[in-house]
Every structure is written in C-alpha cells, then in structure tokens.
Amino acid sequence: MKRIALAIFIIIPFITIHSQEDAKYLKGAVPEVDGKVIFTKIINAGNAYSGNQLFTKVNEWAVANYTKKESDNNNRVLLTDSLSGDIACNGETKLVFKKAALILDQAIMSYQLILDVNNSSCKATIRSIKFKYDTKEFVPAENMITDMIALNKKGDKLSRYYDKFRKHAVDSVNAIFNSLEKYLNNYVTNTPTVHSNNAVVSTEQVPSYYAEEIKYDASLPGFRKVNAEKIPVNIIKLLENECSLISSGASKNISTSTLLWGGLGRFANKPVVYSFIDSNSNTIQTLDANETFTVSFYTDAYKDVVDHIGKGHETTNNLKLTSITTSSGAPAFAEAWMIIECKKLSTQPISLNNGNVKAINTDRNKNERLNMYIGEILNVWIK
After folding, report:
1. Which pTM was predicted?
2. Which fold has domain 33-201?
C-alpha cells in the first residue's frame, strides 16, 4: 500500500509539471483568421528612430536573416518597398523534434514573413506556414497545428503526433518576433504577443534550436564579427545590385566610390577581396596613400545614395552616410549591412583594350584603364 501511495506521489507532480509546460500551446496558441493560420505581433520602436530609419533597420535585419546560406535553404527577401514601408520574406527552418546517436526526427517549416513598417512600429505577420515531414510534399499548417487538429475535443490536451509540430511552430514564430524586437530595441517585451479569441500566448521563451543569437562586437557597435569563410551571401549576387562601395582614408579625408567589379578569393594563401576602380577616380589617390580600406554593402533602400556617390560625389562633405572607423582605422559607414575590412596587398593597372571588351561590358570605353586592388580580409562585420 505504501509503495502504491509513493508511486502516486511521484507521478502526480510529473503530470502537473508536464501540463503546465503544455499550457502555452493549448487553445488559442495558434491564431486563425478566416480559417488560415496567421501569427501577428506589433513591435513598437518608440522614438528611437526617425524618418525612414526604422524601415532601414528592419530591412537590415531581414537581409541578415533571410539571405540564402545553404543549398537547401530557401530563405530570401522577396520585396523591399521603402515608400509603402513593406518588406516580404520567404522563410524556411528546420524543426528538430528529437536528436540522438542513431535518431534524427525533424521537419522543415516554410512560411512567409510580412513586415509593415511605419514611423514608430513594425507589424510582423507570419502566414502561409507549411510543413514537410517524411514526404516530398508540404502540408499546410491548417491541416497540422490548428485547435481542431492538434487538440482534443475539450481543448485541454495536445493530440499525439501533431503536438510536436504545434509546439515547435509556436516557439519558432515567437523566436522570429523576439529576434526582430531585440535587434530594434535590444530587449524583448514580456507583454503577450499573439491574440486569438481572447486567448493569449507569451513569448518569453526563445528556443535554442532556432537561430544563433546575434553577438555584437564592442569595436564596431551595431555589427557582429564573422570569419571570412562565413560571409553569408554569394559575392556575385552582391555586386549585381550595384549597392556597394570601396572606401579609404581617415578622419575628414575619407574618399569612397562605387565598386565597379570585384570578387572574393585567395591570394598567397590568404582570403582576399579583388576590387577594380576607375583610374580617373579621386578614390585612387586615397587608396594608394593608405594601407587599409573597406568594401561595404547596402540594401536597396540606399541605392539612391550609392548612385549619388557613383556620379562623382566622393568626398566626405558630399556623402549622405554616417562615417565610422573600423579596428584597422579604415573608414566605413553605419548604414551598411556588411563591411569587409581589408589590408592592401597588391595594386596593378589594368587596360580594357585587350580585344575582349564587348565580352566584358559594352558600355565601357575600350581604352579605359582600371586599377586592381587586392586586399587581405582582416575582418567581416555584419549587422
């Protein structure tokens, strides 16, 4: 009799704790709008940003988190419209249910993230959620994690099989919202974020399996340092959008120009940047006079500014960007989403008059001369 009582004493607390853990995933945890699963959170930024600064900041977060990093990853920014304040992303993440020596139980969750930015807040919406699990087809969230599917009739218990999808989906969504809020405000509010039929879901917990926490480096506030091998995007795609600058100099003697052509590679067994600059550019003199330089990249929100620089407005007084100094003393700009800090290794003049000008670029003068700069990558800074 005593053994039975002891067993009951042990089991009851376990059931109670387990029920408390599941409570935040019960009725209302997955909001539905017109039969569709849609999560929404309003992130207030207060007076921390003015004008289009909030849009720029949100866009920087979107680019950093939704740039394709792996061959099987479909993260990407679909739309950036500074006039309407809209940013649309396609997201994909792995949900790891169980991982052991010989067991890996996981699924892929795809979704759309819509960011609607105004002067003081950002409305984040996650919709079109789908899961791929043991099949080649994605299954809509409406068939997997709604109250009707993933809960019992009373709504007080999770259904087996569907419970893991519902839990990980809720945690992943909250992690995304928290990541954006932390990036904008450097903290996460403890206020409820998801409302459905008067039900409330807390987002205080962020699952460790979601994404690596952004760690900022004190030597360049607002940026985190990564290895050159960890540059998260294809350099060719980066240069296609024509939103990149090469900068050198110090203090008030900063010179910058648009990056015509370039690339990444290895030289003398070191990771390097190859940059090609018009020999008539004023930037050449400053590059030749300094040992370090930076190559920086910007979102489409700054395309007009970069174009303005490309028309010959290369001096500090004409720049519409906020200058900062990297650890090597090379200049860069706070508005960049990625900065590659370089030490000059080699310089070489190059002529386009080699018989293959048309194959390179039909818009350039075949007698034009460029200077090629090879710079050892010292640091890579990403927002």
Report:
1. 0.49
2. Alpha-D-Glucose-1,6-Bisphosphate; Chain A, domain 4 (3.30.530)
